[in-house]
Design a protein that fits this description.
The structure holds two protein chains of two kinds. By secondary structure, chain A is an alpha/beta fold. Chain A contains ten helices and nine strands. In chain A, 35% of the residues are buried. Chain B has three helices and no strands. In chain B, helix 1 packs antiparallel against helix 2 and helix 2 runs antiparallel to helix 3. Chain B is mainly alpha-helical. At the A-B interface, helix 2, helix 9, helix 10 and strand 9 of A face helix 1, helix 2 and helix 3 of B.
């Protein structure tokens, strides 16, 4: 065992003074192993989603409580959950899945306001926040609060009502948990939404078609035995840690023994892997719009 | 020695640019993947130029850098698309 570890992790005459873990055939094995890992995850997830899947715990009551807690902490009125606005949010979510888009306005030109008007809600001001692929209700609201344009909607004093839809589906080929949050206050139509130009709702109503509503939009709660994002991150970061560790050990031993060999530069490889480590920590599954 | 110093400054610029651009492309996985692949390719090219200047460029070294780049790309794919 000791010989194997030395052969695999340390430069030695048995491995031509380069840790076996850094040999070309080993590097090729890592590429193949990760390719197999990715393929296995997709197959297991497809066939056994309760074993390997995407954990979510997003509920309307938690989203409402969290949103109102933010408002109350700023001295604002809490919003009332409005069934009509929730219907509009559900229709918007269904439209996004049906036409495969991730935007406030649909490719067919439908605006958020058209869904609100079609649901029967009459508003003076309205707004829409979108989120996808978050795993918890608190994560969704925290992300919205961290985004100035979405926060503006959450803490706008004029709103009275709020509606939510939480819908699972496939968007742009990716399994997605979509959260639509719609705000409103009664009266004649004026609308607001982050990063979207205000439109004249009367024009939109004239060209709008009736929306199909979706069922079961109150929550998305799923707890597989293994959560895919956790599994992939753990494996990836452990691998990078291991490979950087071997590069450091290999470099130290070679430097001390002053061995000259034909191989890549360890410090360069370490910097490269650390760069990717930092980049990978920046990857967020959840996204806002 | 001076040449090595300059080479590593160039490498630092390549990697820092990659991180900065990757960070700027948050919320767009396709662009992040493109940035990751571009950074890996730039690293492989840097490795080849570095070893050519050092006078120890060998096919084994080219394969090593290419595989290191491939590992980084598949790690990125693992995190981005699963």
């Amino acid at each position: 065992m000791q010989h194997f570890l030395r052969h695999f992790f340390l430069p030695h005459h048995s491995n031509n003074h380069r840790a076996k873990a850094l040999h070309i055939d080993s590097l090729l094995c890592y590429v193949l192993l990760f390719a197999i890992l990715n393929l296995s995850i997709k197959i297991i997830h497809r066939d056994f989603p309760s074993v390997l899947g995407y954990a979510t715990d997003i509920r309307v009551d938690a989203l409402l409580a969290s949103t109102n807690a933010k408002r109350i902490s700023l001295g604002l009125n809490p919003l009332k959950l409005n069934a009509t606005l929730s219907q509009a949010a559900a229709a918007k979510a269904q439209d996004m899945f049906s036409h495969d888009y991730w935007a406030h306005n649909s490719p067919q030109g439908k605006t958020p306001w058209s869904f609100i008007v079609n649901s029967g809600y009459k508003y003076t001001i309205a707004g829409e926040n979108l989120a996808k692929n978050f795993s918890t209700s608190g994560g969704v609201v925290d992300a919205w609060m961290a985004s100035p344009t979405h926060k503006d909607n959450i803490v706008k004093p004029g709103y009275q009502d709020i509606g939510f839809a939480i819908v699972n589906g496939v968007l742009n080929g990716e399994e997605t948990t979509l959260v639509v949050q719609m705000f409103g206050a009664g009266g004649s139509p004026i609308a607001e939404v982050p990063k979207v130009e205000t439109v004249i709702p009367e024009v939109a109503i004239a060209v709008e078609e009736p929306q199909k509503l979706v069922q079961g939009v109150g929550s998305s709660v799923f707890k597989p035995i293994f959560n895919i994002p956790t599994v992939t991150r753990d494996i990836t970061f452990m691998f990078i840690g291991l490979i950087v560790g071997v590069l450091v050990l290999d470099g130290i031993v070679i430097s001390r023994k002053k061995i000259v060999r034909v191989a890549g530069h360890n410090i360069a490889h370490i910097l490269f892997f650390l760069t990717f480590f930092v980049a990978l920590t920046m990857v967020q599954r959840g996204a806002l719009l | 020695m001076k040449l090595t110093y300059v080479n590593f400054v160039v490498l630092a610029v390549i990697l820092a640019s990659g991180i900065f651009t990757f960070w700027g492309a948050q919320n767009d996985k396709t662009i992040q993947l493109f940035v990751g692949v571009a950074t890996a390719v730039a690293y492989v090219l840097w490795g080849m130029i570095y070893h050519a200047l050092e006078g120890d460029l060998h096919v084994k070294v080219v394969i090593e850098y290419s595989l290191v780049g491939a590992i980084a790309i598949i790690l990125l794919l693992t995190i981005l698309w699963t």
